[in-house]
């Protein structure tokens, strides 16, 4: 083979100057590769980038809220009779409509939302049973009609209190927390209000019966709703039109939802209602129309249902979600 190649290809020799010209770019390339290569420290480990050039692992990222809906019409709210109301977008937190949102008013059984929060935080399990005592009985409707000596789970009393606003259920739970923890239940309610920044609220009882020292504002209730909606237990209330259960003694109990709107409006979800002579009508409802949830808080109203529907209609008519 060598003889054949030698015959085919004449002997070829590079002039020295060509050889030098070829070595120069090769040396330059080798230098560039050496410069770009990672350097070694005295310990033999690659150099580490400083915190000035790279974010630390696990650094919290800023929370980016979705853009709020845009008002592209005129809200017609003259027909809303409530003394105070607040409507806000659940995702962005933007206020969509309001009237006297920081005015303290009586809130009736809306109070039971705070009662529920304290119970949720203090009771170790919803499966725990409570033995009903004479101190747990309460004759004012709505009520379960509890029987002394009956044993009922915390969960059943909790949902009867929120779905049907059962006064005796709320009282039994509050009494049990006091007996179990040795702490005053009302103090626990007000401590929680302070923690949540509810500066214009005060609670004097776990039921919401009329008292000059039991009040809140639409803005403060906004803060309370934000807290309770973190917990699945509260979110299960929304579409329940009744709540029924059988106690350990075999007694059947049942309550009806106090929110009359959820029966005929599948986009509406109940949060809580209230009514007393002092507070008039109060209602907190979530609207989930077209996957754009917003909260409607109506306080001190002669017709809480009509006011809620009017506010909902005006929001859907005049706001556009991005």
Mind sketching the topology for me?
Blueprint: H1 2-8, H2 16-36, E1 70-71, E2 84-89, E3 95-99, H3 112-122, E4 129-131, E5 151-153, H4 154-163, H5 167-181, H6 185-195, H7 218-228, H8 232-235, E6 242-246, E7 252-256, E8 268-276, E9 280-287, E10 294-301, H9 304-318, E11 319-320
Antiparallel strand pairs: 1-11, 2-3, 2-10, 4-5, 6-7, 8-9, 9-10
Describe the structure.
This protein has 322 residues and is α+β, with helices and mostly antiparallel strands. The protein has a single domain (70-320), classed as DD-peptidase/beta-lactamase superfamily (Beta-lactamase), CATH 3.40.710. The chain is built from nine helices and eleven strands. A hairpin with a 5-residue loop joins strand 2 (84-89) and strand 3. The chain is globular, with a radius of gyration of 34 Å. The termini are far apart.
